Amino acid sequence: MNAFQGSVVRLCFLGSAAILLSSVALGQNSSAISAKARAIHESAIVVDTHADTPQRFLDDNFDIGNSDPKDIGHLSLDKAHAGNLGAEFFSIWVDPETNQGHYAKHTLDLIDTVYEQAARHPDRMMMAFSVADIERAHKQKKLAALMGIEGGHSIENSIRVLRDYYRLGVRYMTLSWSNTNEWADSSGDIDDPKVQHHNGLTDFGKQVVLEMNRLGMMVDISHVADKTFWDAIAVSKAPVIASHSSARALCNAPRNMTDDMLRAVAKNGGVVDVNFYSGFDDQSYWDANKAQEKERDAAVKEYLDKLKAEGKTPSYMDEERIQRQWMAKIPRPPFKVLIDQIDHIAKVAGVDHVGLGSDFDGVSGQTPEGMDSAADLPKITQGLLDRGYSAEDIHKILGGNVLRVFAEVEQVSRNMQTQETRTQAGK
Amino acid sequence: MCLSRALCPATLALALALSSESSGQSTVDRLISASAKAIQDSAIVVDTHEDTPLRFLDENYDIGSVDPIDHDYISLAKAHAGNLTGEFFSIFVYPPENKLHFTTRALELIDSVYEQAAQHPDRMMMAFSSEDIERAHQVHKLAALMGVEGGHAIENDIRVLRNFYRLGVRYMTLTWSTSNEWADSSGDIDDAKVEHHNGLTDFGKQVVLEMNRLGMMVDISHVSDKTFWDAIAVAKAPVIASHSSARALTDSPRNMTDEMLRAVAKNGGVVCVNFVGYFVDESFARASERQHQSMTAAVRDYAAKQNTAGHPLTPEDSQRFALEWLNRNPIARAPLRSLIDHIDHVARVAGVDHVGLGSDFDGRNFFPEGIDTAADICPRLRRHCWIGDTAPTTFTRFSAEMC
């Protein structure tokens, strides 16, 4: 779920208005992929660390088994299969505004939607909670469904609630979404003087990071303020991830990572998973978006006010519809900007520290040309192959790096818990 | 948690606990015959309701505590002394203090149980099925299960209910003492200010069916009579009363009529008798009601006097005063035989296959004489020994049917 800094209107729209009707129909992409690229892609365990589809499950009653060719969503079982997607981290994102006072409950609702989808499609999808589970799903040719919480506000400042999320299967948590919470500053409002900031992580925020390490929940630094990033990486005893963040050197968004940060993640052993959102991958898209922001926000507000005046309660879909109309005025960047991002991170942090964090279904359809759904993932393999990446390196980028980090996080957790047991026994 | 806290302030409970004689295994041993002890030791003893999670959470109580003057009814040492194998820890969210946060509070209580098990891996383990209970028994550990006390904890959301199941909750009491949006409670059924539903709403019936589908036991303790009949008509699996006694012996709306006991028998369920004196002994109930009224009046008078003197009371002052008052004005505990009478009555009316133990330990410290800790559960039963190991067997069979 993305949001631009300072934007009065949420950009995280969910749903399914029909803007992408021009998108290439499923299965017709194969012609663009060479046999070699196809073979490399098909032999990989492909892992994506961020998709907002649970919002569609919950609000639109979307079924991941949907095979409607007109559906404009980025993710379905068919699309995942066509793109050889092995594992998806479904994002548990709680809108902090509309769910005030009920973050935990809404978190539970979203978690349930993922389980329910897996229960509905036991032949093609399974819940997964570990690297071993992802590998098992791959062998059985099922989509491994994992969960990550996007925004520490979900725990309602309670370590106990955090632990229950782990027990329910959540395997990463983004320390903040675009909103600063009570213990971590966000890049989304860091320049807003009305928001109370903490100069990064508070002491409690540091406790949260350590408890995540102990549990074996990956610490996700996407969305956080720069200082929160540096605090998290200093405190964490395990490698961190950026579940959906691109490079600031190529696109100057505060949500993106500086080269210093990329190198710090490399040193930490973690992974940066590139966001597919055009506004984070391409400077001219970002600039065009900024340029229309004021006008667009005003138009959205006017539209919503009109609905309210008519006695209606505007829904996500209403907002989404007009947002998409505006954003569709901005030309889509070429596919290569996505490969440029991956390439930059691979060069700065190293090829062991880059992965995929699509932000599918969370970016109002605004992805580079040719990246219209999970079915288009093989194009990434083709793009990397064209730039001279080896099959081995491509496998790392497609999922190997994330699996390595996840396994290390599991190991750190085991070590910390063993240490704890020893301490207890020694008492 | 048995009754509205309006009738049961923490001070009162504490005062009674403090004034109760401290227990010791040696005392118990002297009173238990060899054959009773043998029966006890060979049983899988299961208790379906006790409220220590509130202490885990709010008082940082450690179940490993061996403090001889600790007033808690459950500790690992006491459970061991009483050969208690399976305990359903109650996830009880007190409505007035947790408005708008029922679910979050439930999550915190759930965590408190897991944390206790994690702190004592050698003597306690989490359990989620009857097999787990049997496994715990084999390895001589206390099996910790969880039941949610009061449907309000799901905040009218089936998705939250399912996550409670995933977190290990294995029963839910449809209501606590307050009616919720989908089920009437016996606790406020006569209160005209409360909106009632004539039992279960359609959503309430859905909740019951979803619990059946999940494998979460439907608990009808606390509910109003009509809710009971609705639940038993809708449920596709046996129900439990996790902590309810017999109305024929003690006339409380919280207790079950003989007709209800027979209906539970027909349904294949089990009624786990509540140990609280208030529910098993009418004269104790009346005496404690009077005691409570007198205490409230005394606190009120004292507060007014202090106010006039220019020293208004803080809540802590009131509590302290209430505690002292209770210490000065104790009432006699109910006799142990009252509890045995209830078990005996349920066994006779519903059948010996449909009665069990639902102590309500730590929910309200009004237990009959001789029931001072978990260490006393079985020995006391055996001493009045007619029941053998029937109760636990019943539960195990029942639980096996559920899971």
Low-pLDDT residue intervals, each spanning 5 or more residues of chain B: 2-27, 378-403
N- and C-termini, Cα separation of chain A: 46 Å
| Coarse structural class of chain B | alpha/beta
- Name the helicity range of chain B: 40-55%
CATH superfamily grouping of the largest domain in chain B: Metal-dependent hydrolases
Apparent shape of chain A: globular
Compute the number of helices of chain A.
15
How is the CATH topology of the largest domain in chain B named? TIM Barrel
Q: What is the oligomeric state here?
A: heterodimer
Number-wise, the strands of chain A total: 9
Question: Which value, in Å, is the CA radius of gyration of chain A?
Answer: 20 Å
How would the global form of chain B be characterised? Answer: globular
Give the number of domains of chain B. Answer: 2
CATH domain fold name of the largest domain in chain A: TIM Barrel
Helix content of chain A: 40-55%
Structural class of chain A: alpha/beta
What's the architecture of the largest domain in chain A in CATH terms?
A: Alpha-Beta Barrel
- The CATH architecture of the largest domain in chain B can be named as Alpha-Beta Barrel
CATH class type of the largest domain in chain B: Alpha Beta
Report the span from N to C terminus of chain B. 26 Å
Order of helices and strands of chain A: HEHHEHEHEHEHEHEHEHHHHEHH
Question: Could you describe the 3D structure shown?
Answer:
The complex is a heterodimer of chains A (427) and B (403). By secondary structure, chain A is an alpha/beta fold. Chain A folds into two domains: 25-282 and 335-426, Metal-dependent hydrolases (TIM Barrel); 288-332. Chain A has 15 helices and nine strands. Chain A has helices spanning 35-42, 53-59, 77-82, 103-120, 131-139, 159-167, 203-215, 226-235, 259-268, 278-281, 283-309, 316-327, 336-348, 378-386, 391-426; strands at 46-51, 85-93, 125-127, 143-150, 170-174, 218-220, 241-242, 271-274, 354-356. In chain A, the strands form two sheets. In chain A, strands 1, 2, 3, 4, 5 and 6 form a six-stranded parallel β-sheet that branches. A three-stranded parallel β-sheet of chain A has the order 7-8-9. In chain A, β5 (170-174), α7 and β6 form a beta-alpha-beta unit. With 403 residues, chain B is of the alpha/beta class. Chain B folds into two domains: 16-281 and 334-402, TIM Barrel (Alpha-Beta Barrel), CATH 3.20.20.140; 283-333, no CATH class. Helices cover 46% and strands 11% of the residues of chain B. Chain B is globular and about 65 Å long. Chain B starts with 9 loop residues before the first helix and ends with a helix.
